[in-house]
Amino acid sequence: MMRITRTMQETDLSLVIGIESRAFSHPWPPKAFEDVLSMRPWVLVVDGILCGYIFYHTVLDEAVILNFAIDPDLQGKGHGEHLLSSTLELLQKEGFTNFYLDVRQSNASAIALYVKYGFLALGIRKSYYSDPVEDAIVMGKKLPLPERETL
């Protein structure tokens, strides 16, 4: 299996929107994706098939996961873990050390993945999600600065 994490291209938008509509009960509307290329968007391509995406918003040393999904037909194969770990590593190398996200309280598999990668629950956003109405768990993680190479 060949997994490639790469920067999202404009030509990926229709596939990403398709995954979004299948993965979430209340997906982002297509118009919400207009500015996604100005964010920090990555996609995961597995054996030539785009199977997931992750979008970050970055400021100073902080990165917030805005949206993250793997095609529901391809979940449970480690693709989400690969996409999360590879993008965390890329951002850490750029000097980002603080990471945040919101996750549905009922999304046990996503929560388990985030905990596996060192995210901790920081708080609750009451009734944050709709379809169905549900609280969000705010999670965060602090990474050390990458080590500098010495001459």
Detailed description of the structure:
The chain is globular. A seven-stranded mixed sheet has the order 1-2-3-4-5-7-6. The chain has one domain: Gcn5-related N-acetyltransferase (GNAT) (Aminopeptidase). The chain contains three helices and seven strands, in the order βαβββαβαββ. Helices cover 23% and strands 38% of the residues. With 151 residues, the protein is an alpha+beta fold. Helix 2 links the parallel strand 4 and strand 5.
Q: What integer is the average pLDDT?
A: 92
Q: What is the CA–CA distance across the termini?
A: 37 Å
Q: How do the strands of the widest beta sheet line up side by side?
A: 1-2-3-4-5-7-6
Helix content: 10-25%
Largest sheet: 7 strands, mixed
Determine the CATH superfamily.
Answer: Gcn5-related N-acetyltransferase (GNAT)
Rough shape? globular
Determine the strand fraction and express it as a percent band.
35-45%
Radius of gyration: 15 Å
CATH level-3 fold name:
Aminopeptidase
Secondary structure: number of strands: 7
CATH C-level class: Alpha Beta
Helix and strand string, N-terminal first? EHEEEHEHEE
* Helix/sheet category: alpha+beta
Number of domains: 1
Spans of 5+ residues with little confidence (pLDDT < 50)? none
Please tell me the CATH architecture by its name.
Answer: 3-Layer(aba) Sandwich
Number of helical segments with 4 or more residues = 3
